[in-house]
């Protein structure tokens, strides 16, 4: 599961008993050697799906971690790209390892995704693997923050994998992980919010609509299809609507 350069079991235990911010500060130097880092295959597929929708001028990688998503933004944005994360340790690694030698200007900002320190400066926001750190009730506010930093008709994009089939090894693995995290957070403070099964596509569509987006789904064919014919991985592409949040909107994701 981990390469020899990755964290030890003791280091993972210390991280898990810390806050989310402190935990990622500790994990940052070895994060790219763990399975938590977004695979290049996913990054390439998302960049390929976004290219026909662009070009974009300025892009933001929300909860950027060590900056893997900046490679996607650099492919589809012409002028500048920004990574934002609340972990100083992750941003330090990103600055050292994720500099884009040519192409758009790159900047890094330390901030909480729930209170973004930007105006409507971006026409593309992406995010990879970060939504498990937000409780379902936080999603409308989070998506509202994204909407606030997007220009008119801006785009918010992120990949979503289909849930594992009920009863499969993957299903029991994720169920067990989430159950362990709930027990940990009931017994230990500060909490470490990281759940795999709380980010459900139907709930996501409704939260996006409430925040002022129209969302469409794009299959990522590189990952194939499930036995029922549905895509294994989709890209959610949510367009910022001109209407203010709170006005009526359809609460579904269009396929």
Automatic annotation (TrEMBL):
**Record keywords, A-Z:** Methyltransferase, Transferase
Methyltransferase domain sequence ranges:
60-154
Q: Which CDD domains match?
A: AdoMet_MTases
Q: Which InterPro entries does UniProt cross-reference here?
A: Methyltransf_25, SAM-dependent_MTases_sf
Q: Is Iron tagged as a keyword?
A: no
Record keyword Iron present: no
Cross-referenced Pfam families, in alphabetical order? Methyltransf_25 (PF13649)
EC number of this enzyme: 2.1.1.-
GO BP annotations of the record are: methylation
Q: Name one GO molecular function term.
A: methyltransferase activity
Q: What is this protein called?
A: Class I SAM-dependent methyltransferase
Give the originating organism. Streptomyces violaceorubidus
Its taxonomic path starts at: Bacteria, Bacillati, Actinomycetota, Actinomycetes, Kitasatosporales
